[in-house]
C-alpha cells in the first residue's frame, strides 16, 4: 500500500495547488503559471490587510453592467505604502519579475466580496507587460486559466490566503484567467467556499514603455 502511495505521489503531474486538463499543459506552463502557497507569513498578511482595510472601507462595492469582467468588487490603485508593506512588495518583485522588467508604479488592490467573482479575460496587452503577480488575502479562491484558442486546455490554481501567484508569458497572453464564483468554486472535487478576498497585484509595464509613461495608465489593467 505504502509503495503504491509513493508511486502515485511521484507520478503526479503537478504540485497539489495546480490542476490541469493534462500533463502537456501542466508541463508547458510549469514556469508560466506558478503558485507559491505560504509566500506571506501570518504577520505579513496582517500588515497588508491592516493597511488596506481603511482605504477599502471608504469605497462601495460595485455590481457592474453585464459586460464588466469583475462583479461585486471595490478596488484602488496604491502607490504609497508603509515600510513594512514595501518590504513585502519587494519580495514579490524579486520572486516574480526579472531584472529587465519595470513594474507599474501603482499596485492594484482588489477587494472581492464573498459573492464577487471575475469573469474570464486577458489583461490588456496595451497597458500591462508579460508578468502579473498577485498576493491573496482573507479567503481562498480558485483561479481558472483557459486557452483562448483551444478551450480544452485549462489549468486551475488554488489560491490560499498568503499565497502568491505568478502568470507570465504564455499563461498571461494565451490563456484567459478568472476567479470562480462561490457556487462554482471547486478545485477538482474539493469545494473551496468563497469569502471576501483581497488581492494585491503587481504588473510589469509593456516592454518598451518607460516608467515615465506609466503616469498615463488607466486606473486598472
Ligand atoms: O484578483 C486577482 O488576483 C486577479 C484580478 C484580475 O484578474 C484583474 O484585475 O485583471
Ligand atoms: Fe486579470
Ligand atoms: Mn484588471
UniProtKB/TrEMBL annotation:
GO terms for cellular component: mitochondrial matrix. SUPFAM superfamilies: Clavaminate synthase-like. Keywords: Dioxygenase, Iron, Metal-binding, Mitochondrion, Necrosis, Oxidoreductase, Transit peptide. The keyword ATP-binding does not apply. GO terms for molecular function: dioxygenase activity; metal ion binding. Residues 76-203 form the Alpha-ketoglutarate-dependent dioxygenase AlkB-like domain. Its main location: mitochondrion. InterPro entries: AlkB-like, AlkB-like_sf, ALKBH7-like. One of its GO terms (biological process) is DNA damage response. It is found in: Mitochondrion matrix. Its cofactor is Fe(2+). Belongs to the alkB family. PANTHER family: ALPHA-KETOGLUTARATE-DEPENDENT DIOXYGENASE ALKB HOMOLOG 7, MITOCHONDRIAL, SPERMATOGENESIS ASSOCIATED 11-RELATED. This is Alpha-ketoglutarate-dependent dioxygenase alkB homolog 7, mitochondrial. It comes from Theropithecus gelada. The gene is ALKBH7.
